Amino acid sequence: MSSGGKRADLVSDPINGRPTLLGMVAAIAIGCVLLVFAAEGILRIAMPHWQEFYSGRFMRVILVPGHGLVTTGRPGFDGFFSQNNGDFRVRLQINDFGLRNPDAVDKAEGRIWFVGDSMAFGWGVEQNEMYSSVAGALLKVPTYNVASPGTNVCGYQALLAKTLKRASPRAVIVGLILENDVEDYDCRAGAEQSPADMVQPGSDIRVTSIQGLKVVLMQKSALYNFFAVSLKRVAFINEALISVGLVARGHVNITAKPKAGLDTVIRRTAVELANVRAQLAADIPFAVLIAPARFEIRDRDPAFQKLRQEIVRELAARGIAVIDPITEFLDAGFEPTHFAHDGHWSALGHKIAAQAAAGWLRRQNIGN
Prior knowledge:
Layout: H1 3-11, H2 21-46, E1 59-64, E2 68-73, E3 78-82, E4 89-93, E5 112-116, H3 118-121, H4 131-139, E6 143-147, H5 153-164, E7 171-177, H6 187-191, H7 210-220, H8 222-232, H9 235-243, H10 262-278, E8 286-291, H11 294-299, H12 302-317, E9 321-323, H13 326-332, H14 334-337, H15 347-363
Parallel strand pairs: 5-6, 5-7, 7-8, 8-9
Antiparallel strand pairs: 1-2, 3-4
């Protein structure tokens, strides 16, 4: 019998025409593939918002001369961003300068600027709930948001430098996130790297890792997003996914001890914040707003309490004003001020930060 005949025998019995085991397996596999493609197509039509869960839709990376790479929004983006566990669905509007503002960057002239990362950007809250917006409403003065998710203190220098070329602020408040902004910085050395040597956000994602595969599927597949949304919102299924490592449990304190030593990273963070201050004229009011760690608010974690106190002390020693709303966050409690799964502030958390910022600005004779 020819080799072609042998292959046919594997698929169907030449005597009675019945399919063989291999033939049935092949048919089932082909059917499953076709079913997946059909489901993907149907869900793209039935669930047009399936792409809302991928933050890369509204973020990009740019090079700021003298400061290196920094993330900003995609100019002109106007759409929704959702957390697939149901924590939030919010509208994001990015102006032509890459910032989350309804006004063009030229309108930033003479306003109070709020610089920071995802917290200041208002991750998960609406435009009017961001602490920059709430503080402006409390003071009845215009504010401007100069923030971008995924950046750090070196990125704050870059964002500020880029914006200062187009406008000048009346005052500046920088948000410092204790959980990820305190680092072993050397912003000048980082800026001297060539763009080819720099690691861009997201460039280390590998499809061979579970997290990398999840990001790619979130970006490319409506079917994946449908199941991620559906399964994560069923409590016992979500717990099962956590137990096998497919989903991370929210609000877990896994902070590692810095290699350079706590005193070193605190000092270098303060040095770079002083460099942020040095970008501004001496008569422009400047303060650092501390975002207290979730684990100090929830657990009274002594390590994060010490970190906050030492940062405040180091900044004060350098003549930098600090806004520290820890007492108000402790009074309000952890759950009301944070999303259930996501580590960012809820609208109440932003309101508390805004009230603290507005109080400091009033003491600088700004606002009502």
